[in-house]
Amino acid sequence: MNLDTMQAAIREAGIDGWLFYDHHHRDPIASRILGLDENAHITRRWYYFVPAEGEPRKLVHRIEHDRLDALPGACGLYSSWQEHARGLDLMLSDARILAMQYSPNNAIVNVSLVDAGTVELLRGLGKRIVSSADLVSRFEAVLTGEQMASHVVAQKAIDEILAEAWRKIARALRPANGTPGTLTEFEMMEWLGTAMRNEGLVWEDGPNVSVDTNSSDSHYAPTPERSSPIREGDFLLIDIWAKDEKPGSIYYDITWTGVVGREPTEREQQIFATVIKARDAAIDCVMRAFAANSPIRGFEADNAARSVIRAAGFGDYFIHRTGHNITQEIHGAGANLDNLETHDERLVLPCTCFSVEPGIYLPEFGVRSEIDMMTAPGKAWVTGKIQRELVRI
Questions:
Q1: Domain extent for 303
Q2: How many Å apart are CA 118 and CA 129, to the nearest integer?
Q3: In the chain, how many domains are there?
């Protein structure tokens, strides 16, 4: 934690301070930003207040008195609920407007972590609670040069693995001996997992390999019990994500689509072309804003993609946000490209990473085209290969 940088951001936000609060690891964001042990035994509430000026302050339970010893600032102790209330009142006596991991109406879900009762308690002490969402983006989503480089490591490995995956499918279905082979979604998912592990990558869940109607389910995941065969004539979607195993590394997350053993139908081409146009509209929106050093908010990039799909008459089939922030977590705490699930007014900041992944999910098949973007002062770019045509397998 860089206290000077944090306090400068708090002053810039025009608030009196940032109040961190946790109990039973309800707020992993707090642990990461403050640099605390994410596996520490926490059975009692603790508070850490960073004021706009001056020394930070702590409030911890007596039986877990050392939980915040790694952080600077004076420490208050409590045992009873009465002491707890008095301790909070004293710690925050000169502050009125406090940022917390809170979002009005739960609008920004991934930073809406403080419970309603705690907000009520603080309001009862005369405090105004505002969202820390923009502060969280600044301290959680902005990447170091080393982290940005780690994304490239994953990108290069996964782009090559995916290219080999198409060849693997072709070899499995059309072996050299001429006898048609068999392959299931789950078997292909397992092959992708082995290939990623061999490259030193790690991930959670997935990847997603889905054919035909299964590709209409944007979060489909094959299992041994539920897995369709991959056959000649199928429409195929692969969504793959992972990061380098080195701590602090950043995910790479992409989705491509293709057809097996045939040319795409006119309908498939139409849907694919619409999705690509929407994806490129969002990319262009972000690139132009950063090139002009103009602020851009998450909902604006979503609008750029969504307007293309709506104009083509498929708005009802685009059922998720355009993109999500990417950090050490596949869905990071920074700005999402979203004006559907939420109205995300957070700024897309320099040195952040996020996906752009519009999709159209018809009952018979679904198309999603997903790339990742990285930003820096004055520029934004796509980090990996860009799909321009449906893959022919």
A1: 143-392
A2: 10
A3: 2
* Whether residue 372 sits in one domain with residue 284: yes
| CATH number of domain containing 151 | 3.90.230.10
Say if CB 110 and CB 103 are below 8 A apart.
Answer: no
User: pLDDT tens digits for 341-350?
Assistant: 999 999 999 9
Q: Cα separation of 122 and 89, whole Å?
A: 8
Is 187 in a helix, a strand, or coil?
helix
pLDDT band at 40 (very low <50, low <70, confident <90, very high): confident
Please say which residue of 124, 140, 156 terminates a domain: 140
Cis check: omega of the bond before 51, within 30 degrees of 0: no
Task: Please tell me the predicted confidence (pLDDT) of residue 179.
Answer: 84
- Picking from 91, 114, 140, the residue at the C-terminal end of a domain is 140
Whether residues 103 and 156 fall in one domain: no
Helices (H) and strands (E) in the chain, counts: 9, 17
Would strands 17-22 and 97-100 be described as parallel, antiparallel, or unpaired?
A: parallel
pTM of structure = 0.91
- State the pLDDT at residue 326: 97
Which CATH number do you get for residue 123?
3.40.350.10
**pLDDT tens digit sequence for 129-174:** 999 999 999 999 999 999 999 999 999 999 999 999 999 999 999 9
Question: In the chain, at which residue ranges do the beta strands (DSSP E only) sit?
Answer: 17-22, 46-51, 57-61, 74-78, 97-100, 128-131, 201-202, 208-211, 235-244, 252-259, 325-326, 353-356, 359-361, 366-368, 371-376, 379-382, 391-392
